[in-house]
Amino acid sequence: MNNNNLINNILVSNLIEDFNPQALAEGIAKRVRARRLELNLTQQALAKRSGVSLGSLQRFENQAEISIKSLLKLAVALNATAEFKQLFSVVNYQHIDEVIDSQRHKTRQRGRKND
Fold it and tell me: If both were cysteines, with which of 47, 49, 93, 106 could 54 make a disulfide (CB 3.0 to 4.6 Å apart)?
């Protein structure tokens, strides 16, 4: 496979992951497993360190299924909480006009669209 095909495959793979919840979950599970192995931890050791059951950790690494609470426990145990702090974070303004414009609009308390 030449470099252009390899780059195209990587780009397509990233696009699929970006818009597919299952692919996103599988990517997270792979990264958790990689981090665990970087730290030279067994599944049992990580389960004990995090307070997540061994079965839940195994299911996550194999099937990418886990509760958000257990995922956060794993993140704490793997020292990876910074990534969660960025999730759904507020908008970073690039220009003062954006700040002024945001102040003109009230913060929504509820949505109106049902579709």
Answer: 47
- pLDDT one-digit tens code per residue, 8-46: 665 555 555 667 899 899 999 999 999 999 999 999 999
| CATH number of the domain to which 51 belongs | 1.10.260.40
Place of tokens 């949505």: 111
3-state SS of the chain: helix, strand, coil percent to 5? 65, 0, 35
Cβ atoms of residues 83 and 75 within 8 Å: yes
Question: For 91, how many CA atoms within 13 A lie in the half-sphere containing its CB?
Answer: 10
CA dist 83 → 20, 28, 40, 79, 108 (Å): 19, 11, 21, 10, 26
**CB neighbour list of residue 1: distance below 8 Å, 6 or more residues apart:** 9
Query: Is the entire prediction scored with pTM above 0.85?
Result: no
In terms of Cα–Cα distance, which of 80, 49, 72, 74 is closest to 61? 74
* Span 67-103, pLDDT tens digits: 999 999 999 999 999 888 878 777 777 777 766 776 6
